[in-house]
Amino acid sequence: MEHISGSSFDEFAKWYLDREVRKGCEVSTPLTPEERFARMQEKHEGKMRPWFPDCTWSIVNMTSLDEFLNLMILDVDWTKRENLVVRGEPRTLRITSERALKLNYFVEETQDREKHQNYYKDISEGNFAFRGADRFVVRSLQDNEEKERRRLGLHHVSYYLHDGFGRALPYAALILQGHLEFAPVESFLAEENT
């Protein structure tokens, strides 16, 4: 991982809320740091962690394909329902992308898959640079994720993909299929101060 610059919770919050405005999910981005913090807590609590305001933030480039593919990904109802995450198996971006390809995830249409299928098409056409407005967010592993990492012997897993799974999954799949070559991806990095 290559350090680009320092950052802050407020820079992340502004970036996230600006992106929500572009997607049509928010009307406007609040003007002050206090208002942005309140909006994140009220409307986007899933993108928050209690330690985010006080952690170390930076902007990094993930320059290694292995580093990118070894990000831990979310374990929620829909990823289980789609068989992207299977209980007792590692939930890295690599394994999940391989599983998605075996399941024809980007081909067989369902309502839950539509967004990822659209990203798959857009990314294959070169419509994402994974920088600036399209960067990812990665963070330190939480206790439960760290325990899972140790239990499954995932010594190569260091970070969790906190935001951007919808874009990361098709990007990783396109790389694994040989349709795209990996190019470094920019990310916010949130590291919990212990």
Tell me about this structure.
This protein is α+β, with helices and mostly antiparallel strands. It has a domain at 58-191. Helices cover 40% and strands 15% of the residues. The protein has eight helices and five strands. Strands 1-2-5-3-4 form a five-stranded mixed β-sheet. α1 packs across α2 and α5 (93-102) packs across α8 (165-176). The radius of gyration is 16 Å and the shape is globular. The two termini are 20 Å apart.
Brief rundown of the structure:
The chain has helices spanning 9-22, 33-43, 65-69, 77-81, 93-102, 114-124, 143-151, 165-176, and strands spanning 2-6, 56-62, 136-140, 159-163, 185-191. With 194 residues, the protein is an alpha+beta fold. The longest helix is centred in the N-terminal third of the chain and has 14 residues, at 9-22.
List the keywords.
194 residues, alpha+beta, five-stranded mixed beta sheet, 8 helices
List the helices and strands and how they pair.
Blueprint: E1 2-6, H1 9-22, H2 33-43, E2 56-62, H3 65-69, H4 77-81, H5 93-102, H6 114-124, E3 136-140, H7 143-151, E4 159-163, H8 165-176, E5 185-191
Parallel strand pairs: 3-5
Antiparallel strand pairs: 1-2, 2-5, 3-4
Helix pairs in contact: 1-2, 5-8, 6-8
Number of strands: 5
Helix content: 25-40%
Uncertain segments are none
**Biggest sheet, in brief?**
5 strands, mixed
**Whole-number radius of gyration?**
16 Å
